[in-house]
Amino acid sequence: MTATLLRTAAELHARARTGRRAVVMTMGALHEGHATLIRAARKIAGPDGEVVVTVFVNPLQFGAGEDLDRYPRTLDADVELAGRSGADAVFAPSVDEVYPGGEPQVRISAGPMGERLEGAARPGHFDGMLTVVAKLLHLTRPDVALYGQKDAQQLALIRRMVRDLNFGIEIVGVPTVREEDGLALSSRNRYLSPAERRTALALSQALFAGRDRHAAQEALRARAREVPATRARAEALSAIGESRAAADAHAVATTAGGPAAIRAAARLVLDEAARLDPPLTLDYLALVDPSDFTDIGDDFTGEAVLAVAARVGATRLIDNIPLTFGNLGAAS
Ligand SMILES: Nc1ncnc2c1ncn2[C@@H]1O[C@H](COP(=O)(O)OP(=O)(O)OP(=O)(O)O)[C@@H](O)[C@H]1O
Ligand SMILES: CC(C)(CO)[C@@H](O)C(=O)[O-]
Ligand code: BAL
């Protein structure tokens, strides 16, 4: 399948609409994570519907000193990958096409959730992101739009904007696609040298260590209901597995359990990576409620997000993993 390249809003609006329109928004430099979103969009739109992929590196969401100028731009390959993955059209407007009068004076405000974690590290980022997402939703007029859970805070804010401002568009989240060794796919991975990539693996490893600790805690809680506490604890700890035993023993020894122990288990991996060459520099590690991105408390139940951001060399990467608390029937 070949995707049609559209450069202007006029070209986009001239397209005859057929069936449901599903939109996948990207900044280009497409990879298998994007391809997964496009395939999911194709499924939702169906054979009679339409899948539109947007490619736009939005200056409004980059801060001074960030990587706007060096962000990879690979439009020909993007159109090819989009078509191969099931897109009908790629809308890749210029900056002038999106912001004809220069930067917009009226913008979307992301509110308090937009000032936490990524928002604290990148002031103004989420206002710029939501402003362009609102514009692209108006320009593409989809029935449904799909976003990756890799950018969990972005996804949560888009859901919030669509609900709070009555956009009337269905928002679908797609789970994070990872390399075989666990690294989350990201356009920015192409900045990494082989040595930096080895260090960057610590982001996902830390999340997996936190996930293992969480699984052990949930197992412990479940077992505690069935068998005497001491036996349950031993069994649950053995479920963690030999590979994590040292990190886990440390976490058990230094924390009281609950969210603190999960953070501690993840933190240990990140602290080790800080001593590698090249080192990892941690920006934040947080275990948050995805409805507002505040830290969860000990009595939290439901779905939480363990999120991390770090620098390796000149590259800043983010990753996260969902963890379900108190739902003993579900896998974490
Ligand atoms: N590994 C992934 N798995 C699932 N979705 C992803 C993945 N990487 C990106 N996405 C999603 O693709 C959409 C476009 O993201 P974007 O173009 O910024 O890609 P990216 O790889 O996240 O780039 P960057 O490295 O700049 O963060 C977003 O909804 C994002 O969450
Ligand atoms: C949603 C988005 C396309 C807005 O520029 C961007 O933030 C991204 O690619 O995740
Ligand atoms: N993938 C999120 C877009 C950004 O980093 O600006």
TrEMBL record:
EC numbers: 6.3.2.1
Main location: cytoplasm
Note: The reaction proceeds by a bi uni uni bi ping pong mechanism.
Organism: Streptomyces tendae
The protein, known as: Pantothenate synthetase
Entry annotation: catalytic residues: H34 (proton donor)
Gene name of the record: panC
Residues binding beta-alanine: Q61
Entry similarity comment: Belongs to the pantothenate synthetase family.
Entry-linked SUPFAM superfamilies: Nucleotidylyl transferase
Keywords: ATP-binding, Cytoplasm, Ligase, Nucleotide-binding, Pantothenate biosynthesis
Location(s), subcellular: Cytoplasm
Primary role: Catalyzes the condensation of pantoate with beta-alanine in an ATP-dependent reaction via a pantoyl-adenylate intermediate.
NCBIfam families for the chain: panC
Presence of the UniProt keyword Cytoplasm in the record: yes
HAMAP family assigned: PanC (MF_00158)
Residues noted as binding (R)-pantoate in the record, renumbered to the chain: Q61, Q154
Pathway noted in the entry: Cofactor biosynthesis; (R)-pantothenate biosynthesis; (R)-pantothenate from (R)-pantoate and beta-alanine: step 1/1
Catalytic activity, as annotated: (R)-pantoate + beta-alanine + ATP = (R)-pantothenate + AMP + diphosphate + H(+)
Catalytic EC class: ligase
Keyword NADP: no
Regions that span the bilayer: none
Subunit annotation: Homodimer.
